[in-house]
UniProtKB/TrEMBL annotation:
This is Putative pyrroloquinoline-quinone binding quinoprotein. SUPFAM superfamilies: Quinoprotein alcohol dehydrogenase-like. Residues 291-381, 382-448 form the Pyrrolo-quinoline quinone repeat domain. Signal peptide: none annotated. It comes from Naumannella halotolerans. InterPro entries: PQQ_rpt_dom, Quinoprotein_ADH-like_sf, WD40/YVTN_repeat-like_dom_sf.
Length: 562
């Protein structure tokens, strides 16, 4: 499945850039661990990372963000936790971080939220020296008015060079466990409205029933009649709270949800709110945050297989998540990941060192590994597929099953593009399109495509786009051309939805409009709303429309075309 992408612009998650007294107790990099919960008798998945100021602040839940006027901290420690398998509790904890201290700012769950202004000091030189620390400020619980409160904060060593900080506020208390290089290792609250607690003991990840989750939600038929702005929400304290617009660097559709990798290195899934149950308004499309994680570094690859999301990061990791955001598996590469592609139930990932590995999407089992590859150009095929790679001035076809070389061809260094459609591989070299049989490399036909700047593969054939768009079948015959109104559409891209009903849809950015067409498809067009620029990301085909990220005078916004 294709993931839309644009270059990242914001520093990604990373360690605290200081040698201050608290740095050693914070996570050195983004980390995901599983910790026990004796009260719920289950396991929490706990993901945490140190984030740049703007990234951490923008991820604060409402109404917390209302009382934190801007990125007040140089950095933030963000913790996202998912409760036991049979209890889909979602919890986020946010800490403001500086060289000298860590302050607890907020906790939010499905059922409750609490925030502190200023933040509660839970790590600083005074606390770490064993002295008591006193705090006075305002506490806000859920939507209630903030109240003045006082707190007593103490700390004690608890073994393995770890420290436990306890903050007592009246009859309530919070307990934080900190371990060198690990960050927050345990947290317990006595406030019922928050109701979270995980302990220091690390455990094995729980077994997830039906981890693959490969079934897509059938896409509805496009009508060409509606354009709705998308508004993003999060469930906090039992209510929908509007979130800031995510600035995506990559986006994809995973089964029944939109997955966005933002420019700060966080990955969030968004479930469309149901039009029929009264939760969505007629003038906008509502999307609800379902899970969030910080995989580490910057996201350089995003692919989906049904409801499974797979990301590749500059932190050398390829990580798969199930529909609920639980980590299914993780593969550490030798170098930063440069691309992640999917074909069927196979994931093909490449790193900057030239290693390419093929992994099962459901459990991460390695099928094969190849070295010395400069770029993965395409993956596809009808039955036994091929992985098209570049080694120097050679394009080579590898078996998707074994990784063994099947055939290769040289090119003269001119601009080259490769696409796979069924049993045909198309190579664009300069102004020529040369078609080969996918498994044998036998040359089938060639044609001049002087104006063909982009090359894609869809089930119906090879798509060549430029001043016009043409779809050529396995025999080189034209099976579809764009209409006059689609002239200048640049570029057309295959739909980012793997269901057969939309497999041959092409989505285009035309002059001032979004266009959809393709073999056997009627053609649709939507005018862009006033003052909207062309999409920043390639459009994503969702279950009920086409989703775009587009600039407007006040910033960026997401739109849904139906």
């Amino acid at each position: 499945m294709v993931a839309a992408t644009v270059a990242a612009a914001t520093p990604a998650a990373g360690p605290v850039d200081s040698a201050g007294p608290v740095a050693g107790l914070l996570p050195a990099r983004a980390v995901t661990e599983w910790r026990s919960d004796s009260a719920l008798r289950g396991t929490w998945q706990v993901n945490q990372a140190v984030l740049p100021g703007e990234v951490g602040w923008s991820g604060l839940p409402m109404p917390v963000r209302e009382q934190v006027s801007g990125p007040e901290a140089e950095q933030w420690l963000g913790v996202d936790a998912i409760g036991p398998v049979d209890n889909l509790q979602r919890t986020s904890l946010d800490f403001a971080v500086s060289e000298q201290e860590v302050r607890f700012v907020s906790a939010a769950t499905n059922g409750g939220a609490v925030s502190f202004s200023p933040g509660l000091p839970v790590l600083d030189p005074v606390i770490l020296s064993g002295e008591r620390q006193r705090w006075s400020g305002r506490v806000r619980t859920n939507d209630e008015q903030p109240v003045v409160a006082n707190a007593l904060i103490t700390a004690e060593p608890i073994g393995n060079s770890c420290t436990r900080t306890v903050a007592e506020i009246g009859d309530d208390s919070y307990s934080f466990d900190w371990c060198p290089g690990e960050g927050l290792s345990g947290w317990v609250s006595t406030i019922d409205s928050v109701g979270l607690g995980f302990e220091m003991e690390t455990v094995e990840p729980p077994t997830v029933a039906d981890p693959a989750g490969f079934d897509d939600v059938a896409a509805t038929e496009l009508r060409g009649t509606e354009v709705r702005p998308i508004r993003f929400f999060r469930t906090v304290a039992g209510q929908y709270r509007e979130e800031l617009v995510p600035m995506g660097s990559r986006a994809a559709w995973a089964g029944d949800q939109l997955v966005v990798a933002d420019t700060g290195g966080r990955v969030t899934s968004w479930l469309p709110l149901d039009d029929a149950d009264g939760t969505a308004a007629e003038d906008f499309s509502g999307h609800l945050a379902f899970w969030r994680t910080t995989p580490g570094g910057s996201v350089r690859g995003l692919a989906t297989v049904g409801a499974v999301t797979v990301v590749g990061t500059t932190d050398r990791a390829v990580i798969a998540y199930d529909r609920d955001g639980r980590e299914l598996w993780r593969r550490v590469m030798d170098e930063a990941v440069t691309s992640v592609l999917s074909w069927g139930e196979l994931i093909v990932a490449a790193d900057a060192g030239g290693t390419v590995v093929a992994l099962a999407a459901g459990d991460g089992t390695q099928s094969w590994l190849a070295d010395g590859i400069e770029e993965v150009l395409a993956v596809g095929g009808s039955n036994a597929g091929v992985v098209m790679v570049r080694r120097g001035t050679t394009v080579q076809a590898l078996s998707t099953t074994t990784g063994d070389p099947l055939w290769s061809t040289r090119f003269d260094g001119d601009s080259t593009a490769v696409a796979v459609s069924g049993d045909t591989v198309g190579l664009r070299v300069g102004n020529w399109l040369v078609a080969h049989e996918a498994r044998t490399g036998r040359r089938l036909w060639h044609d001049s495509i002087a104006d063909g700047r982009f090359l894609y593969g869809i089930p119906a054939g090879l798509v060549v786009t430029g001043r016009r768009t043409t779809v050529l079948d396995a025999g080189g015959n034209t099976v579809w051309e764009n209409s006059d109104r689609m002239i200048g559409a640049d570029p057309l891209v295959p739909s980012a939805n793997g269901s057969s009903s939309t497999a041959d849809e092409l989505v285009a950015d035309g002059p001032g409009r979004l266009l959809v067409g393709g073999p056997g498809e009627f053609e649709l067009a939507w005018d862009y709303p006033a003052q909207r620029e062309p999409p920043e990301l390639a459009p994503v085909r969702a279950d009920r429309g086409v989703i775009t990220l587009q600039r407007e005078p006040t910033g960026y916004g997401w739109l849904e075309y139906r």
